[in-house]
Amino acid sequence: MKGYWIILASDVTDSEAQQEYARQWAPLAEKYAAKIKVLDTLAEAHTSTRVLAVEFESLEQAKACYDDPAYVHAKVFALRAARRELMIIEGDFA
Fewer CB atoms near the end CB (10 Å): N or C, the chain? Predict the structure, then answer.
């Protein structure tokens, strides 16, 4: 089964931090063969305005990417750019 990060996020409030996160994320996405999918529908939300799914070949890959020291460093910029919640799950979603 595939692994996923499901990210519920607010609007970006620090575009410079978002740009730096994107720059640091690119090689990680390539290393872990991650595919980002922007999900259109947020049926109910308190503070989130965006939903993203990041698909990995396995749950192990999803966890390894999250624990990668390069991602730990990049995550600082992601958290500065917007408020978010991230879950790591396993499944086969179309």
Answer: C
Q: Is the model's pTM score more than 0.85?
A: yes
pLDDT in tens, the chain (94 residues): 999 999 999 889 999 999 999 999 999 999 999 999 888 776 677 778 889 999 999 999 999 999 999 999 999 999 999 999 999 999 987 6
Pair 77, 21: CB distance under 8 Å: yes
Q: Are 70 and 27 in contact (CB under 8 A)?
A: yes
Distance CA 7, CA 27 (A): 19
What CATH class does 2-91 carry? Answer: alpha beta
Q: Where are the domains of the chain?
A: 2-91
